[in-house]
Amino acid sequence: MRPIRYTRNHLIQSGEPGAANRGASAEAEDDLPELEKAFVLVAADYGPRKGIDYATWREAGVTAEVLQKAGIHWSRRS
């Protein structure tokens, strides 16, 4: 989760979108369905504990569809 923390900190410090790694290796693309399932199971609890909000997940490349499945929604309080 190191890239997520970097992105969150970058957004807070600069107010600009960070240079998050949006690309995925060929191996990661093969595992994407399993990774998404695991993300959906843990992200809603993990994010608030680490201060990761909807905008930060999106900046890190998580799709809105996956965030919705995880129960993470956009909020004006972000």
Q: So how many helices?
A: 5
Judging from the principal axes of the Cα atoms, what is the shape? globular
Q: What is the H/E order?
A: HHHHH
Low-confidence stretches: 16-24
Number of strands: 0
The description of the largest β-sheet is: none
- Integer-rounded radius of gyration: 12 Å
Q: What is the structural class?
A: mainly alpha
**Through-space gap between termini:** 19 Å
Helix share of residues?
55-70%
**Fraction of residues in β-strands:** under 5%
Average pLDDT number: 78
How are the secondary structure elements laid out?
Layout (H helix, E strand, L loop, with lengths): L1 H13 L11 H5 L1 H19 L3 H6 L4 H7 L8
Helix pairs in contact: 3-5
Please, could you describe this protein's structure?
With 78 residues, this protein is an all-alpha fold. The two termini are 19 Å apart. α3 crosses α5. The chain contains 5 helices and no strands. The protein is globular and about 35 Å long.
